[in-house]
């Protein structure tokens, strides 16, 4: 049986970052993080150790995010945030850099759902390809190929 207090301390920030990479809303990410650990406590007896604890928690979090999307689709006016970031004014270089980040994130969000999640897990969640494969219940090679193909799509649409 898992010692959930220690598990929470060790993985809460990781799960919150993972959820933020999916929903792009800090408040939603925090709420779903709490729900993830609540569900983990409820099902801790069923954790069989066949994957890393972080992978197991990400699978729970991902499932909860999909449930949240389903709930939102049934409620009018409760969609996802429209903007990703507001570039703050400042020196020209900082502005251009923030514009590039916004443009890149918008391009990532235009990828198909699976490719988008793989890219976000890799660049914002700092997950290894093996861990990404585990989250999707696939292998490491699948994660590498999916990331590579998504990166190629992003590069094709990026100005030189």
UniProtKB/TrEMBL annotation:
Instruction: Quote the protein name from its UniProt record.
Output: Sigma-70 family RNA polymerase sigma factor
> Which residue ranges are recorded for the region named Disordered?
77-97
Q: Which family does it belong to?
A: Belongs to the sigma-70 factor family. ECF subfamily.
User: What taxonomic ancestry is recorded?
Assistant: Bacteria, Bacillati, Bacillota, Clostridia, Eubacteriales
Q: Give UniProt keywords alphabetically.
A: DNA-binding, Sigma factor, Transcription, Transcription regulation
As recorded in UniProt, coiled-coil segments are none
Start and end residues of each RNA polymerase sigma factor 70 region 4 type domain: 103-154
Question: Which NCBIfam families does UniProt cross-reference here?
Answer: sigma70-ECF
Checking Gene3D superfamilies in the record gives: 1.10.1740.10, Winged helix-like DNA-binding domain superfamily/Winged helix DNA-binding domain (1.10.10.10)
Which organism encodes this protein? Yanshouia hominis
Q: Does the keyword Cytoplasm apply?
A: no
Q: In the UniProt record, does the keyword Transcription regulation occur?
A: yes
Q: Where is the RNA polymerase sigma-70 region domain?
A: 8-75
């Amino acid at each position: 049986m898992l010692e959930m207090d220690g598990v929470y301390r060790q993985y809460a920030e990781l799960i919150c970052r993972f959820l933020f990479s999916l929903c792009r809303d800090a408040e939603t990410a925090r709420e779903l993080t709490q729900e993830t650990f609540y569900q983990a406590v409820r099902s801790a007896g069923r954790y069989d150790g066949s994957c890393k604890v972080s992978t197991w928690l990400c699978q729970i979090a991902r499932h909860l995010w999909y449930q949240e999307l389903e709930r939102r689709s049934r409620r009018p006016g409760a969609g996802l945030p429209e903007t990703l970031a507001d570039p703050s004014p400042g020196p020209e270089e900082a502005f251009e850099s923030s514009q590039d980040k916004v443009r890149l994130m918008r391009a990532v969000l235009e990828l198909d759902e699976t490719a988008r999640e793989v890219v976000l897990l890799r660049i914002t969640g700092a997950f290894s390809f093996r861990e990404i494969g585990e989250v999707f219940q696939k292998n490491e090679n699948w994660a590498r190929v999916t990331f590579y193909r998504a990166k190629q799509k992003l590069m094709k649409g990026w100005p030189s």
